[in-house]
Write a structure and sequence with these properties.
With 250 residues, the protein is an all-alpha fold. It has seven helices and no strands.
Length: 250
């Protein structure tokens, strides 16, 4: 008779059955634009750009105003120089030089004009020297200042020419009053030298005036370029003389 034993459970019976899968929790990251660090960085950049932009605008306005003030002060400082370079005034330089060279203007009157020109040109030079231009305009001011100073030299040369002309005239008068033929010839020769020296002085004055005009032209041209670059509507800086003085197109 067979003996029935207890049936053995298969090893790993309960454990062998597969359990239900556990859910996996996936953390969903927010969009880049929604992240806190991005928002903070973005607004920081925006604020910084606004501040820098405001500073830039303020800087442009400030430097533009500074250049405009300088332009206006320069025009005032050059007032006397511009006045004498004009052709519509009694003290106009070009017309009086032309008349003196042609013998239409008395030497004493021309000498007095030379003294007036020197005085007024020196006043203009001192006025320009006292100005404080913006940094980029310093070279332009120096050229203009050198040009005005050259005009002071021109006025002095005209005075010397007037004095020399008076000597020549006195020599001619003396020669006419001298009866001694030998002495008269010597006096006439000296008077001729004095007259020739007048022409030499006038030539030197013309050369110095050309140099002065060139320096002032270059300085004004630089200022005009700077005004255009900085969008400054400046007053007319040109020193216009229809008879040959300084003339810079606006």
């Amino acid at each position: 008779m067979a003996i029935k034993g207890k049936t053995k459970k298969k090893a790993g019976g309960a454990r062998g059955r597969a359990g239900a899968p556990k859910p996996i929790v996936v953390e969903r990251k927010p969009h880049l634009y929604s992240r806190t660090w991005f928002k903070r960085t973005f607004w920081s950049v925006v604020i910084l750009a606004a501040v820098l932009g405001g500073l830039r605008v303020w800087q442009n306005v400030s430097r533009g105003n500074s250049l405009l003030r300088y332009d206006r002060n320069l025009v005032r400082s050059e007032g006397l120089l511009k006045q004498h370079l004009g052709s519509s005034v009694a003290t106009g330089l070009s017309k009086n030089v032309e008349d003196f060279s042609a013998g239409k203007l008395d030497a004493k009157r021309f000498e007095d004009l030379g003294k007036l020109w020197e005085q007024d040109f020196k006043s203009s030079k001192d006025g320009v020297a006292k100005l404080h231009p913006p940094g980029p305009a310093k070279d332009a001011q120096q050229m203009i200042l050198n040009g005005v100073d050259a005009y002071v030299g021109v006025a002095r040369l005209y005075q010397a020419a007037a004095i020399q002309k008076r000597l020549a005239n006195d020599g001619d008068a003396l020669a006419k009053a001298t009866k001694d033929a030998v002495l008269k010839k010597k006096i006439e020769a000296q008077a001729k030298k004095d007259a020739d020296q007048v022409q030499v002085l006038l030539l030197h004055a013309s050369e110095w005036r050309t140099r002065a005009d060139t320096l002032i032209n270059q300085g004004i041209a630089q200022l005009q370029d700077l005004n255009a670059a900085w969008h400054v509507k400046a007053p007319s800086l040109s020193l216009t003389d229809a008879s040959g003085g300084v003339s810079v197109p606006s």
